[in-house]
Amino acid sequence: MRRTARRVACAVALAALVAGATAARADPAAAGAELDRLAAEHAGDAPTPSLATEAAPRRPVTESSPVYATLDGTQVTGFLARPADAQGALPGVLLIHEWWGLNDNLRAMARQLAGEGYLALAVDLFEGRSATTPEAARALVQEAGRREARLLDNLRAARAFLAEQGATRIGVVGWCFGGGWALRAGLALGDPLDAVVMYYGRVETDPAVLGRLRAPLLGLFAGRDTAPPVSAVRAFERALAAAGRTATIHVYDDAHHAFANPSGGRYDPAAARDAWARTLAFLAEHLQPPPR
User: Fold this and answer.
1) Taking Cα atoms as reference points, which of 163, 211, 155, 159 lies closest to residue 180?
2) Residues with Cβ < 8 Å from 29, sequence gap 6 or more?
3) Strand ranges (DSSP E) for the chain?
4) Mode of pairing for the β-strands spanning 247-252 and 217-222
5) Of the candidates 133, 219, 238, which has an alpha carbon nearest to the alpha carbon of residue 174?
6) 205 with 149: CB under 8 angstroms?
7) DSSP output for 29-64
8) At what angle do helices 148-164 and 134-145 cross, to 10 degrees?
9) C-alpha distances out from residue 127 to 32, 67, 112, 267, Å
10) Biggest alpha carbon distance in the chain?
11) Where are the beta strands (DSSP E) in 61-129?
């Protein structure tokens, strides 16, 4: 499996790169076509747990299900994990689920991050609902698209919750649907986020929009994905450079969409392990205190 990685940081000549995600949000037909591609990637798939989701975290963790937000009177419950032996303040990470919703796979990822020394909050953008079929997941994503302001309020509240818990620095990691929303969080929340990691998901190709991104970004994508396709990923990469953002983009050439989901049918263990190692290194660089 070939892997390609390109560093993008300083400003390159500002170019006009308007397509992809920007057009999709403005044009309902384009948004529908994007959702069609996502549904095609998950055709016949189901979030069935595998042994990979049962791996123990690197150190013992404690867990709880706190109410982290109240939206128009509705309480939103997430999943919180932290190191059992933690003393003092910890860096925090928001985890945003795939189009399946907050399920056992995301809880397992929260435990893994807690085992690495983070206060990990798995958020619930679907507010208590989840899906086990692509058809149900598509319906949840369609509904979410009609209330994007509420989803952003959800993420703001989640970030504030971690800050109230004493989190020193806060990052966000998202997969699939959550990957796109991790980017959206970075654009909307600005300086309150210190790191953004997106595993595939909707990209943005307008440098003017990406200029609002303050946190460094790590993007992990699949070469055989159509949601987004590599052409859109490369346009995203160029737009980040044109906007002068600090970002690293990795494309796993032989991997498919959802390659990092051990409860999905396209799980790629080698690509997932490498992506997770890069994720941990990136989070440590931007969230963990420097060694004394």
Assistant:
1) 155
2) none
3) 3-8, 61-64, 67-71, 74-77, 79-83, 92-96, 119-122, 170-175, 195-199, 217-222, 247-252
4) parallel
5) 219
6) no
7) HHHHHHHHHHHHHTTT------GGGGPPPSS-EEEE
8) 90
9) 23, 11, 23, 26
10) 54
11) 61-64, 67-71, 74-77, 79-83, 92-96, 119-122
Per-10-residue mean pLDDT for the chain, 292 residues long? 38 32 54 83 80 83 98 98 94 97 95 97 98 95 96 98 97 98 96 96 98 98 96 98 98 96 88 97 93 57
Q: CA-CA distance, 181 to 49, in Å (whole number)? A: 23
pTM of the model: 0.89
pLDDT for position 40: 86
CB-based contacts of 237: which residues, under 8 Å, 6+ apart? 6, 8, 219, 247, 249
Contact 198, 219 (CB under 8 A): yes
CB 288 within 8 A of CB 91: yes
| Token pair belonging to 272 | 């997932």
- Cβ pair 177, 34 in contact under 8 A: no
On whether the 3-46+55-287 domain is CATH 3.40.50.1820, my answer is yes
